[in-house]
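User: I'm writing a short report section on ligand binding and want a predicted complex to refer to. Could you take this sequence and 4FN and write out the structure as tokens? A short remark afterwards would be nice.
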Amino acid sequence: MKFTVLTIFPEMFNSFWAYGIIKKAIAENHIYASAINIRDFAKDKHKTTDDRPFGGGCGMVMKPEPLANAIRMAKEINPDSKTVLLSPQGRIFNQNLASKLAASKGLNLVCGRYEGIDERICSNFIDDEISLGDYVLMGGELAAMVIIEAVTRLIPGVLGSPDSALQDSFSGKLLDYCHYTRPREFEGSKVPEVLLSGNHKDINDWRLEAALIRTFFKRPDLIENRPLTKQENEILKKWCRDIENIIQTQSLRGSGTLSGN
Ligand code: 4FN
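Assistant: Sure. The structure tokens for the complex follow:
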């Protein structure tokens, strides 16, 4: 996979390439990464990349010629690549889209600045538009980094074990269970006993239940459009029984608000 970022701030990526799994993936030739400076493709002596908008209004617009030439260069470096514009008009990025992008030969990620880019670039040079979410950014660079990071870890061989990408929370569509490490007691809070038991079945059961509880309370939307496994179904039924029991005991005691106080 070859990532080419097109930006007027290529230096923003220097530290991005230089750390952690991205650095390792580059060193091991799983990915190739480079940033093209759009300014290098400006022909005038001031290397202008922006201009005033036709029709008036505030702010500046990215000129089409330097961008077009930069994209042509990226295509030349990697003819099989797809050119993606990071933009609030794109479809919202998610894990599903990350998997699809991970299958491509190369991605040219075009980062907008100022008020945006000339529309004729969008229509004639862009294959796909992706947005990171609904908020105002100052440019597409951080969005490009997010996409590169999410896609890189899905490329076979990048993560240590071949299935660690799959075992991660989102591919399974539940949030992670709670994690603990030493010490066993930290400022008065203890690690759940079951995790110290060494009983792997109990630990796995507990972790699934913990993941389900978290997802149910914090991100119910992740459960809604997803078929439950048999084991998950059993856990939910157990909760129903537990809740029923609580309600039963309360009404027998006659101490709940249901009995009038
Ligand atoms: N943003 C909105 C509406 C109108 C404009 C913006 C906005 C950077 C070049 C685009 C934003 C968000 C997610 C790139 C936002 C993204 C950008 C992204 C982005 C400078 C023009 C701009 C309604 C979404 C709040 C500035 C909504 N993912 N304009 O942010 O590039 O990738």
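A remark for your report: The first strand starts at residue 2 and ends at 7. The mean pLDDT is 94.
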